[in-house]
Amino acid sequence: YTGLDRAGYAVGAVYSVLMMLPFLLTLKKDNLQKVLIAGVVLVALVSSKRTALLSTVLALVCYFLFDAIISNKRERAKKILKMIGLCIFLGAVMYLVIQKLNLDILDRLNSITEDGGSGRDEIWESVIWGFENSPLSQKLFGHGYHSVAALRGRGQLAHNDYLEILYDYGVVGIFFAMMFVLTLLCRLLKLWKVKSPLFPVYIASMILFIMFSVASYFMVQSLRNMFLIAFLGAIDPAVKSAESTGRGEIPYERSY
Q: I need a surface site. Which of 95, 165, 192, 197 has the fewest CB within 10 A?
């Protein structure tokens, strides 16, 4: 699954790699983890996809920051140094790759307000207009699967899961989608409350989830979300344990 967007940038393969990031953050071997994380960042960088790069960097920063915050004083300084070292390493790698390959990612980041997020503002406006001018029955139950693509007339999705679900499945559909997201966010808050070791990797996962669902299409494309959803499912027993005991360990991390 290596689809290209209209500008010729890889989409499917890139997103699949990025959704593996939470698995990599559970690795115990630091050197292997650094190499693989650098690989993920490089994939996001070379793809020139702004959502991919911004969400990956933000997820990594939050992971290492909160990993240091919830650690005991003895481990905190060590983890902060590790975070600083990794940031310097990744920054150097990104700079070299941008220079060597002459990538336009920095220009694309600078133009994000000028091009409306590659035309997302126009797409969102048209979907909202279509929903507002729909009969009550379609507002409640939607227009049917993939109706945004028909509305746009070019097979183009909404690039926002919540607008996509609202238009395709109506108020009823968006209600269930929001309940699912709120359930994940409630679990995140509970993990923070008990300062669980699972919190850093969970917040990194949620950053990827939310950013891609807001600025791209994530929940409505199973090929894009399957690795992240698989990760959330894999650690679900540990998350429930953390909620009840106040700790919780990642159940498979020691097997690496």
A: 95
3-state secondary structure of 150: helix
Beta bridge partner(s), residue 82: none
Burial 64-96 (b: 16+ CB within 10 A, else e): bebbbebbeeeeeeebbebbeebeeebeeebee
Render pLDDT for 203-221 as a digit per residue (tens, 0 to 9).
999 999 999 999 888 888 8
Q: What is the pLDDT of residues 124-156, one digit of tens each?
A: 999 999 999 999 999 999 999 889 988 877 667
Strand partners, 4: 10
End-to-end Cα, the chain, rounded Å: 27
Give the 3-state secondary structure of residue 10.
strand
Half-sphere exposure for 2 (CA within 13 Å, toward CB): 2
Instruction: Tell me the two tokens of residue 114.
Output: 């000028």
Contact yes or no for 230/19 (Cβ under 8 A) = no
- Picking from 82, 7, 93, the residue whose alpha carbon sits closest to that of residue 44 is 93
Give CA–CA dist 6/16, Å, rounded.
19
- Taking the C-alpha atoms of residue 238 and residue 198, their distance in angstroms, rounded to an integer, is 8
